[in-house]
Design brief:
The protein is an alpha+beta fold and 405 residues long. The chain folds into four domains: 88 residues, conserved putative lor/sdh protein from methanococcus maripaludis s2 fold, CATH 2.40.420; 88 residues, Efflux pump adaptor protein, beta barrel domain (Elongation Factor Tu (Ef-tu), domain 3), CATH 2.40.30.170; 68 residues, OB fold (Dihydrolipoamide Acetyltransferase, E2P); 83 residues. Helix content is 32%, strand content 34%. The chain contains four helices and 23 strands. The chain has a six-stranded antiparallel β-sheet, with no helix packed on it. Strands 3-12-15-14-13-16 form a six-stranded antiparallel β-barrel. A four-stranded antiparallel β-sheet has the order 4-11-9-6, with no helix packed on it. A hairpin with a 4-residue loop joins strand 14 and strand 15. The radius of gyration is 47 Å and the shape is rod-shaped.
Length: 405
């Protein structure tokens, strides 16, 4: 009987109080609650990122690279320059009375562009022409007198042979004919001089008419009726600038350290700044055999393989000089081509943002060669994918984007 209370007391000591069990449960719930709160916060952040502010971006479509693409050995920039460009000016000083050309007008060789006041020159020409007519009339008179003198000389010679005329009569007739023959020679020289003076006067009169030196396009109009113009060497301005659009070519400066990579006949690809997506085949025409000591560059001129009306003088252009073939091994074909300004660096990684639906997807890519304004992407982007060009610095993976219209 005495052992039973002792065992009951020991069992009571081993039991857990109800308050203690509830405290343990609370402590176990704390980590679970923290995990739930963290998950909710991450979900809220992701939803805010995906459903928050929409960023407007510029996009481009990744293009499949051409099979057997030729490697670029050198890049350079320059301008479109015409081989034939002329600022047409007056050869004399005068007042403009008429301008017959305007900007953008096509002109033919010899076409009248403007006229100057030629009233004085026209009067001088008329006076010179009158003097020439006088010289011609004097020559005709002497020719008539010489013909008469020759007839008298023949008759006198016959009469002298018959003994009717004296020796003095024969000498007089001969002297008269010789004098008229000398006068005829002088009259002919005078007529030649009058013709020359008339030609000068006509040319002076023609100088008051300004004509196009060759066929082309008028790219400027620099004079108006009523203005006084003068030759360029005398400090005057031009009437209009004419450009032969069939002579457009590319002029670039190549660093002299790399000029050995360029040779006449070498293929190239030109990209106009105005049309960055348009690649124009070109060929090196010549390497100017002199260097600029100030810039340490050599001038290179290239011709377009085919001209296009969109190509205009003084446009900025970037040129990619291609391999000429031979023993150089071609680079492997790239998967796709994207604009170089679609690439961004994240440490040692090259990344692009691909538009997937309404969101920007960050992708690491493998870069190949540079081809003009494009870059080869060997891995990471599929053909026809839409990439973000010049992505904003704060653009994040999963952010909502909208292409600019």
């Amino acid at each position: 009987m005495s052992d039973t209370p002792k065992r009951t007391a020991k069992l009571a000591d081993l039991s857990i109080a109800p308050g203690s069990r509830e405290g343990d449960r609370s402590r176990r719930r704390i980590p679970l609650l923290v995990a739930v709160v963290a998950a909710v916060a991450i979900a809220v952040v992701l939803l805010a990122m995906r459903g928050g502010k929409v960023v407007e971006v510029t996009t481009a479509v990744a293009r499949p690279a051409e099979t057997g693409a030729i490697a670029t050995v050198l890049n350079a920039s320059g301008y479109v320059e015409p081989r034939r460009r002329a600022t047409v000016a007056a050869k004399i000083t005068g007042r403009v009375t008429e301008v017959l050309v305007d900007e953008g007008m096509p002109v033919e060789e010899g076409q009248v562009l403007a006229r100057l006041d030629d009233a004085d020159a026209r009067r001088r020409t008329d006076a010179t022409r009158a003097a020439r007519d006088v010289a011609a009339a004097a020559l005709a008179e002497i020719e008539v007198n010489l013909a008469d003198a020759d007839r008298r000389l023949r008759r006198t010679t016959e009469l002298r042979a018959q003994g009717v005329a004296s020796e003095q009569d024969l000498d007089t007739a001969t002297a008269a004919a010789d004098a008229l023959r000398a006068q005829l020679a002088v009259a002919r020289r005078n007529l030649d001089a009058a013709d020359a003076e008339l030609a000068v006067a006509v040319q002076d009169l023609e100088n008051y008419t300004i004509r196009a030196p060759f066929a082309g396009i008028a790219v400027s109009k620099e004079a108006q009726p009523g203005e006084m113009v003068a030759p360029v060497f005398a400090g005057g301005g031009g009437i209009s600038t004419i450009v032969d659009m069939t002579s457009l070519e590319i002029e670039v400066d190549v660093n002299e350290s790399y000029i050995a990579r360029v040779a006449p006949g070498q293929p190239a690809e030109a990209i106009l700044d105005a049309y960055p997506g348009w690649r124009i085949p070109a060929t090196v025409r010549t390497v100017i055999p002199t260097a600029d000591r100030q810039k340490a560059t050599v001038k290179v001129r290239l011709t377009f393989d085919e001209l296009d009306p969109r190509i205009l003088p003084d446009m900025g252009v970037k040129v990619a000089f291609r391999e000429t073939g031979g023993g150089t091994e071609q680079a492997p074909r790239a998967a796709v081509l994207v604009p170089r300004n679609a690439l961004r660096r994240d440490g040692d990684l090259a990344i692009v943002f691909v538009v997937n639906g309404e969101h920007a997807e960050r992708r690491a890519v493998t870069i190949g060669r540079e081809i003009g304004s494009d870059a080869e992407i060997l891995a990471g982007v599929s053909p026809d994918a839409t990439v973000v060009v010049e992505p904003p610095d704060d653009l994040a993976d999963g952010q909502r984007v909208r292409a600019r219209s």
